[in-house]
Amino acid sequence: MVAVSYHDTVNVLQAAGAPWEGPFDRAEWFELLADAGLPPLVARCGDATLMLTRANGRIEPMRNWYAFTWRARGDNPVLLAAVARSLRAHSHRVTLWPVPDEDGSATRLAAAFRTAGWHVAVDRCDHNHVMPVNGRSFSEYWAGRPGQMRTTLKRKAKKVAVEIHDRFDAVAWSEYEAIYAESWKPGEGDPDLLRAFAQAEGAAGRLRLGIARAEDQAVAAQFWTVENGTAYIHKLAHRESAKPLSAGTTLTAALFERVIDVDKVELVDFGTGDDPYKRDWMEVDRPRFRIDCLDPRQAAAWPALAKRALRVLAPGASAR
Protein backbone atom coordinates (compact mmCIF):
# COMPACT_ATOMS: atom_id res chain seq x y z
CA MET A 1 0.00 0.00 0.00
CA VAL A 2 1.14 3.54 -0.77
CA ALA A 3 -0.09 6.51 1.23
CA VAL A 4 -1.67 9.57 -0.38
CA SER A 5 -1.63 12.83 1.54
CA TYR A 6 -3.70 15.98 0.97
CA HIS A 7 -2.66 19.53 1.73
CA ASP A 8 -4.45 22.88 1.66
CA THR A 9 -1.28 24.93 1.21
CA VAL A 10 1.23 25.08 -1.63
CA ASN A 11 4.13 25.33 0.83
CA VAL A 12 4.46 21.56 0.60
CA LEU A 13 5.89 22.02 -2.90
CA GLN A 14 9.00 23.73 -1.55
CA ALA A 15 10.12 20.36 -0.18
CA ALA A 16 8.99 18.35 -3.19
CA GLY A 17 12.41 17.79 -4.72
CA ALA A 18 13.88 19.26 -7.90
CA PRO A 19 12.21 22.41 -9.26
CA TRP A 20 9.62 22.06 -12.00
CA GLU A 21 10.57 23.16 -15.47
CA GLY A 22 8.10 25.79 -16.63
CA PRO A 23 6.56 29.01 -15.34
CA PHE A 24 3.22 27.32 -14.60
CA ASP A 25 4.76 24.38 -12.73
CA ARG A 26 6.66 26.20 -10.01
CA ALA A 27 5.56 26.63 -6.39
CA GLU A 28 5.72 30.41 -6.84
CA TRP A 29 3.04 30.27 -9.53
CA PHE A 30 0.69 28.29 -7.33
CA GLU A 31 1.36 30.69 -4.47
CA LEU A 32 0.18 33.53 -6.71
CA LEU A 33 -3.00 31.59 -7.49
CA ALA A 34 -3.59 30.89 -3.80
CA ASP A 35 -3.05 34.55 -2.93
CA ALA A 36 -5.60 35.42 -5.63
CA GLY A 37 -8.20 33.30 -3.82
CA LEU A 38 -7.92 29.89 -5.47
CA PRO A 39 -7.94 27.27 -2.65
CA PRO A 40 -5.30 24.55 -3.12
CA LEU A 41 -6.00 20.84 -2.88
CA VAL A 42 -2.56 19.27 -3.21
CA ALA A 43 -2.58 15.48 -3.61
CA ARG A 44 0.79 13.77 -3.07
CA CYS A 45 2.02 10.21 -3.16
CA GLY A 46 5.78 9.84 -3.16
CA ASP A 47 7.06 12.03 -5.97
CA ALA A 48 3.64 12.13 -7.69
CA THR A 49 1.91 15.46 -7.07
CA LEU A 50 -1.33 16.87 -8.46
CA MET A 51 -2.09 20.57 -7.88
CA LEU A 52 -5.87 20.65 -7.66
CA THR A 53 -8.77 22.74 -6.41
CA ARG A 54 -12.50 22.30 -5.83
CA ALA A 55 -14.73 24.16 -8.26
CA ASN A 56 -18.00 23.73 -10.15
CA GLY A 57 -19.02 20.71 -8.08
CA ARG A 58 -15.92 18.73 -9.02
CA ILE A 59 -12.15 18.62 -8.64
CA GLU A 60 -10.28 20.69 -11.23
CA PRO A 61 -6.71 21.80 -11.87
CA MET A 62 -5.28 24.60 -9.79
CA ARG A 63 -4.85 26.97 -12.73
CA ASN A 64 -6.25 30.07 -14.38
CA TRP A 65 -6.50 31.53 -17.90
CA TYR A 66 -2.88 32.74 -17.91
CA ALA A 67 -1.49 29.22 -17.70
CA PHE A 68 -0.47 27.54 -20.97
CA THR A 69 -0.59 24.03 -19.48
CA TRP A 70 -1.42 22.00 -16.42
CA ARG A 71 0.16 18.63 -15.66
CA ALA A 72 0.91 16.27 -12.82
CA ARG A 73 4.36 15.94 -11.38
CA GLY A 74 5.88 12.48 -11.43
CA ASP A 75 5.58 9.70 -14.00
CA ASN A 76 5.36 6.59 -11.82
CA PRO A 77 2.12 4.85 -12.95
CA VAL A 78 1.62 3.11 -9.58
CA LEU A 79 1.84 6.37 -7.63
CA LEU A 80 -0.34 8.31 -10.08
CA ALA A 81 -2.96 5.54 -9.94
CA ALA A 82 -2.85 5.65 -6.14
CA VAL A 83 -3.63 9.38 -6.20
CA ALA A 84 -6.41 8.82 -8.74
CA ARG A 85 -7.90 6.04 -6.62
CA SER A 86 -7.87 8.16 -3.48
CA LEU A 87 -9.63 11.03 -5.25
CA ARG A 88 -12.78 8.88 -5.47
CA ALA A 89 -13.30 9.69 -1.78
CA HIS A 90 -13.25 13.41 -2.55
CA SER A 91 -15.49 13.80 -5.60
CA HIS A 92 -17.48 11.92 -8.22
CA ARG A 93 -15.77 13.89 -10.99
CA VAL A 94 -12.24 15.09 -11.78
CA THR A 95 -11.69 17.23 -14.89
CA LEU A 96 -8.13 18.15 -15.87
CA TRP A 97 -7.05 20.58 -18.62
CA PRO A 98 -5.16 21.84 -20.64
CA VAL A 99 -2.85 18.83 -20.41
CA PRO A 100 0.04 18.39 -22.87
CA ASP A 101 0.99 15.04 -24.31
CA GLU A 102 4.27 15.72 -26.10
CA ASP A 103 5.82 14.72 -22.76
CA GLY A 104 3.32 11.90 -22.20
CA SER A 105 1.39 13.76 -19.48
CA ALA A 106 -2.12 13.24 -20.88
CA THR A 107 -1.49 9.59 -21.68
CA ARG A 108 -0.13 8.89 -18.19
CA LEU A 109 -2.95 10.67 -16.38
CA ALA A 110 -5.70 9.04 -18.44
CA ALA A 111 -4.14 5.60 -17.84
CA ALA A 112 -3.79 6.27 -14.10
CA PHE A 113 -7.44 7.23 -13.70
CA ARG A 114 -8.63 4.28 -15.77
CA THR A 115 -6.50 1.94 -13.65
CA ALA A 116 -8.10 3.48 -10.55
CA GLY A 117 -11.60 2.65 -11.80
CA TRP A 118 -12.71 5.98 -13.26
CA HIS A 119 -14.54 6.25 -16.57
CA VAL A 120 -12.27 8.53 -18.57
CA ALA A 121 -12.90 10.64 -21.68
CA VAL A 122 -10.04 12.49 -23.38
CA ASP A 123 -10.75 15.29 -25.85
CA ARG A 124 -8.64 17.91 -27.53
CA CYS A 125 -9.55 21.21 -25.88
CA ASP A 126 -7.00 23.67 -27.28
CA HIS A 127 -4.02 24.39 -29.52
CA ASN A 128 -0.45 25.26 -28.55
CA HIS A 129 1.56 26.84 -31.35
CA VAL A 130 5.33 26.60 -30.96
CA MET A 131 8.44 27.24 -33.04
CA PRO A 132 11.41 24.86 -32.61
CA VAL A 133 14.54 26.87 -33.40
CA ASN A 134 16.51 23.82 -34.61
CA GLY A 135 19.83 25.66 -34.45
CA ARG A 136 18.80 28.51 -36.75
CA SER A 137 19.77 32.14 -36.37
CA PHE A 138 17.02 34.75 -36.39
CA SER A 139 17.87 35.71 -39.98
CA GLU A 140 17.55 32.08 -41.07
CA TYR A 141 14.22 31.76 -39.25
CA TRP A 142 12.98 35.07 -40.70
CA ALA A 143 13.83 34.01 -44.24
CA GLY A 144 11.22 31.28 -43.89
CA ARG A 145 8.36 33.57 -42.86
CA PRO A 146 5.54 34.51 -45.25
CA GLY A 147 6.54 37.13 -47.79
CA GLN A 148 3.87 39.58 -46.63
CA MET A 149 5.30 39.57 -43.08
CA ARG A 150 8.83 40.17 -44.32
CA THR A 151 7.65 42.98 -46.57
CA THR A 152 5.68 44.59 -43.74
CA LEU A 153 8.71 44.58 -41.45
CA LYS A 154 10.94 46.02 -44.16
CA ARG A 155 8.49 48.86 -44.84
CA LYS A 156 7.39 49.68 -41.29
CA ALA A 157 10.29 48.84 -38.94
CA LYS A 158 11.91 52.29 -39.22
CA LYS A 159 8.70 53.96 -38.04
CA VAL A 160 8.91 52.58 -34.49
CA ALA A 161 11.64 52.25 -31.86
CA VAL A 162 11.85 49.10 -29.76
CA GLU A 163 13.12 48.60 -26.21
CA ILE A 164 13.29 45.29 -24.33
CA HIS A 165 13.41 45.15 -20.54
CA ASP A 166 14.80 42.08 -18.77
CA ARG A 167 14.03 43.49 -15.32
CA PHE A 168 10.67 44.74 -14.11
CA ASP A 169 10.19 48.44 -14.83
CA ALA A 170 7.14 50.09 -13.28
CA VAL A 171 6.88 52.77 -15.97
CA ALA A 172 7.12 50.24 -18.81
CA TRP A 173 4.54 48.02 -17.11
CA SER A 174 2.16 50.96 -16.77
CA GLU A 175 2.61 51.60 -20.49
CA TYR A 176 1.82 47.94 -21.18
CA GLU A 177 -1.39 48.22 -19.13
CA ALA A 178 -2.41 51.43 -20.94
CA ILE A 179 -1.80 49.85 -24.35
CA TYR A 180 -3.73 46.73 -23.38
CA ALA A 181 -6.68 48.87 -22.27
CA GLU A 182 -6.78 50.49 -25.74
CA SER A 183 -6.27 47.26 -27.68
CA TRP A 184 -8.66 44.76 -29.24
CA LYS A 185 -8.13 42.45 -26.29
CA PRO A 186 -10.87 41.64 -23.75
CA GLY A 187 -10.60 43.02 -20.22
CA GLU A 188 -7.60 41.72 -18.28
CA GLY A 189 -8.62 38.81 -16.07
CA ASP A 190 -6.48 39.53 -13.00
CA PRO A 191 -4.11 42.47 -13.57
CA ASP A 192 -2.73 42.34 -10.02
CA LEU A 193 -1.74 38.69 -10.38
CA LEU A 194 -0.17 39.32 -13.78
CA ARG A 195 1.84 42.25 -12.43
CA ALA A 196 3.05 40.17 -9.47
CA PHE A 197 4.07 37.41 -11.89
CA ALA A 198 5.96 39.90 -14.07
CA GLN A 199 7.73 41.33 -11.03
CA ALA A 200 8.83 37.87 -9.90
CA GLU A 201 10.03 36.95 -13.42
CA GLY A 202 11.91 40.24 -13.62
CA ALA A 203 13.62 39.65 -10.28
CA ALA A 204 14.74 36.24 -11.57
CA GLY A 205 16.05 37.70 -14.86
CA ARG A 206 13.52 35.75 -16.92
CA LEU A 207 11.40 38.72 -18.05
CA ARG A 208 11.45 40.07 -21.60
CA LEU A 209 9.06 43.04 -21.70
CA GLY A 210 9.04 44.74 -25.09
CA ILE A 211 7.72 48.23 -25.80
CA ALA A 212 7.43 49.79 -29.28
CA ARG A 213 7.23 53.57 -29.56
CA ALA A 214 6.22 55.90 -32.36
CA GLU A 215 6.99 59.60 -31.91
CA ASP A 216 7.78 58.89 -28.25
CA GLN A 217 4.37 57.31 -27.58
CA ALA A 218 4.20 53.65 -26.53
CA VAL A 219 2.00 51.96 -29.14
CA ALA A 220 2.64 48.23 -28.69
CA ALA A 221 3.77 46.01 -25.83
CA GLN A 222 4.55 42.34 -25.32
CA PHE A 223 5.22 40.30 -22.18
CA TRP A 224 7.54 37.32 -22.71
CA THR A 225 9.64 35.20 -20.36
CA VAL A 226 12.67 32.97 -21.03
CA GLU A 227 13.41 29.84 -19.06
CA ASN A 228 15.20 26.52 -19.54
CA GLY A 229 15.69 27.03 -23.26
CA THR A 230 12.11 28.13 -23.95
CA ALA A 231 10.71 31.59 -24.65
CA TYR A 232 7.08 31.97 -23.54
CA ILE A 233 4.87 34.62 -25.18
CA HIS A 234 2.37 35.54 -22.47
CA LYS A 235 0.66 38.74 -23.58
CA LEU A 236 0.74 41.08 -26.53
CA ALA A 237 -1.24 44.17 -27.45
CA HIS A 238 -1.15 47.29 -29.59
CA ARG A 239 -3.19 50.47 -29.65
CA GLU A 240 -5.90 50.26 -32.26
CA SER A 241 -5.13 53.84 -33.25
CA ALA A 242 -1.59 52.77 -34.21
CA LYS A 243 -2.58 49.69 -36.19
CA PRO A 244 -1.37 51.15 -39.56
CA LEU A 245 2.17 51.25 -38.14
CA SER A 246 2.27 47.43 -37.79
CA ALA A 247 4.18 48.03 -34.56
CA GLY A 248 3.17 44.62 -33.29
CA THR A 249 4.96 42.90 -36.16
CA THR A 250 8.10 44.97 -35.60
CA LEU A 251 8.05 44.29 -31.86
CA THR A 252 7.44 40.57 -32.26
CA ALA A 253 10.32 40.28 -34.73
CA ALA A 254 12.62 42.16 -32.34
CA LEU A 255 11.73 39.82 -29.49
CA PHE A 256 12.22 36.76 -31.68
CA GLU A 257 15.65 38.08 -32.61
CA ARG A 258 16.49 38.66 -28.96
CA VAL A 259 15.48 35.23 -27.70
CA ILE A 260 16.98 33.33 -30.65
CA ASP A 261 20.28 35.17 -31.14
CA VAL A 262 20.98 36.39 -27.58
CA ASP A 263 19.11 34.08 -25.19
CA LYS A 264 19.78 31.09 -27.46
CA VAL A 265 16.42 29.44 -26.78
CA GLU A 266 15.54 26.14 -28.40
CA LEU A 267 11.77 26.72 -28.52
CA VAL A 268 9.35 29.66 -28.71
CA ASP A 269 5.94 28.91 -27.16
CA PHE A 270 2.95 31.05 -28.18
CA GLY A 271 0.64 29.66 -25.51
CA THR A 272 -2.90 28.45 -26.16
CA GLY A 273 -5.35 29.47 -28.85
CA ASP A 274 -5.61 28.95 -32.58
CA ASP A 275 -5.49 32.56 -33.75
CA PRO A 276 -4.59 32.66 -37.46
CA TYR A 277 -1.69 35.09 -36.94
CA LYS A 278 0.08 32.55 -34.71
CA ARG A 279 0.48 30.22 -37.67
CA ASP A 280 2.54 32.85 -39.47
CA TRP A 281 5.09 32.96 -36.64
CA MET A 282 4.98 29.34 -35.49
CA GLU A 283 5.68 26.02 -37.17
CA VAL A 284 4.18 23.30 -34.94
CA ASP A 285 0.66 22.97 -33.52
CA ARG A 286 0.61 20.81 -30.39
CA PRO A 287 -2.73 19.61 -28.96
CA ARG A 288 -3.90 20.28 -25.42
CA PHE A 289 -6.28 17.79 -23.85
CA ARG A 290 -9.16 17.73 -21.39
CA ILE A 291 -9.28 14.56 -19.28
CA ASP A 292 -12.76 14.15 -17.79
CA CYS A 293 -13.00 11.40 -15.17
CA LEU A 294 -16.29 10.11 -13.73
CA ASP A 295 -16.62 7.55 -10.94
CA PRO A 296 -19.31 5.01 -11.95
CA ARG A 297 -19.61 3.87 -8.32
CA GLN A 298 -21.21 7.18 -7.34
CA ALA A 299 -24.79 8.06 -8.29
CA ALA A 300 -23.83 11.72 -8.74
CA ALA A 301 -21.81 10.69 -11.80
CA TRP A 302 -24.56 8.72 -13.54
CA PRO A 303 -26.31 11.56 -15.43
CA ALA A 304 -22.99 12.73 -16.90
CA LEU A 305 -22.06 9.13 -17.73
CA ALA A 306 -25.37 8.70 -19.59
CA LYS A 307 -24.73 11.87 -21.63
CA ARG A 308 -21.21 10.65 -22.39
CA ALA A 309 -22.52 7.31 -23.62
CA LEU A 310 -24.89 9.10 -26.00
CA ARG A 311 -22.07 11.30 -27.34
CA VAL A 312 -19.82 8.30 -27.92
CA LEU A 313 -22.57 6.63 -29.95
CA ALA A 314 -23.10 9.75 -32.06
CA PRO A 315 -21.42 9.95 -35.49
CA GLY A 316 -18.07 11.73 -35.43
CA ALA A 317 -17.62 11.44 -31.65
CA SER A 318 -14.09 12.38 -30.63
CA ALA A 319 -13.85 11.20 -27.01
CA ARG A 320 -11.45 8.36 -26.47
UniProtKB/TrEMBL annotation:
InterPro entries (UniProt xref): Acyl_CoA_acyltransferase, BioF2-like_GNAT_dom
Superkingdom, natural source: Bacteria
Domain BioF2-like acetyltransferase positions: 150-279
Protein's organism: Tsuneonella dongtanensis
Protein name, per record: BioF2-like acetyltransferase domain-containing protein
